[in-house]
Amino acid sequence: MAKKILEVRDLTVGFPREHGLLKATDHVSFSIEEGQTLCIVGESGSGKSVTSMAIMRLIDYAGGIIAEGKITFDGEELTTKKQSEMNRIRGERLAMIFQDPMSALNPVFSVGDQIAESLRIHKGMNAKDAWNKAVEMLKLVGIPEAEIRAKQYPFEMSGGMCQRVVIAMALACDPELIIADEPTTALDVTIQAQILDLLRRLKRELRTATLLITHDMGVAAEMADRIAVMYAGTIVEEGTVDEVFRTPRHPYTVGLLRSIPRLEEEPGSELYTIQGSIPGIGELPQGCRFHPRCPHAMSRCFIEEPSLLAAKGKEGHRAACWLEGIPEVSTR
Amino acid sequence: MTEPYLVEAKELKKYFPIKKGLLGRVVGHVKAVDNVNFGVRPGETFGLVGESGCGKSTLGRVMLHLQKATGGEVRFEGRDIQQAGPKELRALREEMQIIFQDPMGSLNPRFLIRDLIGEPLRLHRKMSASDIDDRVIELMNLVGLDVNRRNRYPHEFSGGQRQRIGIARAIALNPKFIVADESVSALDVSVQSQVLNLMMKLQKELGLTYLFIAHGLNVVRHISNRVGVMYLGKLVEVAPADELFARPGHPYTKALMSAIPQPSPGQKRDRIMLQGEVPSPVNPPSGCRFHPRCPYAQDRCRTEEPLPQPIGFDREVACHFPLTVDL
């Protein structure tokens, strides 16, 4: 078995309030192996970004706390680390690509300087070597005329170019894990296609483990080896990309896949919908969190919360649902 | 043959001046909409797609006369709405409405829901308070909102429900024509399909005509009868939705469609990866505006601007070498 780069166990992240802890994620567990891309998909408020912030330990700055659970990164426990220790890990061994490249870059430094900075800090390179490596990184991510571009400032670049710079910066120190939170959501489709293509090429060449967070099932289908579907703070289904897309087990996954208008569908026909809306973290229902919206809800679902269990004969394909076999598990 | 249009753009232009210096000298123009011709037929949904900055939202606004056109005409039921006087324009406003992308940004946070939905009625109709209340309840039922919540504020509603409030406001005056500007783009997929179903239902029941502006192509194909593709202020292709998606005529249309990630893992697709980015609309490229990114560009494309030409029934494409026609 391949080496586990990241292992998250029972991660519960919350925001302390007067009347107690407001839980954004509840006992979330998953792991990522070397060279693997795990995609966490979910709608807004599902806790996917909070999970990534917790792994980076940036949640501390957002007013959240890790209430429970373990985050093991390459054998090291991150939940107990001091921020000063995290500073050495973040940016070097654990890199992040954010949604909005414009705000992820410092507007008053040239992009070359910003990439070189992390090389000087983490790798102890001198200014000249760091600059040369920065230019090399810009070439790697497909920026033409990298020597000239390195001297430019973020405002002189388009959104797609800025995202390439952010990716170059993330890769500069040769990290063991990249966390990409909605890396293409702010971009236009043709630019998104370019960036996804770049990420796929880098994945093939560098074999860096990646945690990709997205709300777009299409992006997940194109990028992921494994998929974890989050709903209202918990993982409701996890499996390989084929398992989740072809034989989904959780009614929420089925609903998500069916709600997307597909190119082969009859135009103008009524679209499948999941009734109701996602509950806020302060107003979670009892029992299974999805039961008020679930077309298959049974009396048990109202009372007991199901845990994430593997399917018969399929160790890696887990779902949190009381139904044994969901009727009509079809994405059409 | 083709029906008369409900709304029609004729050689429509919208330029934004770029001003520089203390005196506000005009140094150039952003040609957001440049010589666009198209029409929307009664009862149909016309989808308008393109990337950010292509001018699709500006075109939507100019069609409603929310922004004044720089040149050309917008005809609503045959009348040029730019020639309309203030009184006539006010009457026209009742017929033409808009649904915005961000429902939170378009709803006054200090208004109750009943006041928000009743606002167009108060402004345009001489109705008594109780008649307005009755109509608000009717509208809330129509768009699937809980009428018991009419004394609440917008922030107490979810994104999908806020969009329903926006739709209720838009249909309050029984308009004929609605511009939906990215009206489902900000919503999560499970909620997006609810709002799309609602829009299709209302169209059938109320006989609405939509100009549906979006960048999500799957959504546009599903809801539209015909689709127009915009690139840098120009309409490069207009075609019935199914035809456009089955056999795109313009290379840009094909590239745009092949770029959407599909939720079917392992599916092999004929993808055109576009190089570079959308050029600035201040200095658009010579000839065909798409030529610097077009994989099929030839010398003629660099010098001569292609004009829209019919290809097949009810289709037009502005390309010297359209993909569906063998030359």
Automatic annotation (TrEMBL), chain A:
Domain ABC transporter as annotated: residue spans: 6-257
Keywords attached to this entry: ATP-binding, Cell membrane, Membrane, Nucleotide-binding, Transport
Q: Which GO terms describe its molecular function?
A: ATP binding
Gene3D superfamilies per the UniProt record, alphabetical: P-loop containing nucleotide triphosphate hydrolases
Q: Which family does it belong to?
A: Belongs to the ABC transporter superfamily.
NCBIfam families per record = oligo_HPY
Q: What is this protein called?
A: ATP-binding cassette domain-containing protein
TrEMBL record, chain B:
UniProt keyword list: ATP-binding, Nucleotide-binding, Transport
In terms of superkingdom, the source organism counts as Bacteria
Please list the GO terms describing molecular function.
Answer: ATP binding
Q: InterPro entries in the record, alphabetically?
A: AAA+_ATPase, ABC_transp_ATP-bind, ABC_transporter-like_ATP-bd, ABC_transporter-like_CS, Oligopep_ABC_C, P-loop_NTPase
Listed CDD domains: ABC_NikE_OppD_transporters
Looking at the UniProt entry, the stretches that span the membrane are none
SUPFAM superfamilies for the chain: P-loop containing nucleoside triphosphate hydrolases
- Residues of the ABC transporter domain: 7-257
Q: Which family does it belong to?
A: Belongs to the ABC transporter superfamily.
**Stored NCBIfam families:** oligo_HPY
What protein am I looking at? ATP-binding cassette domain-containing protein
| Source species | Paenibacillus glycinis
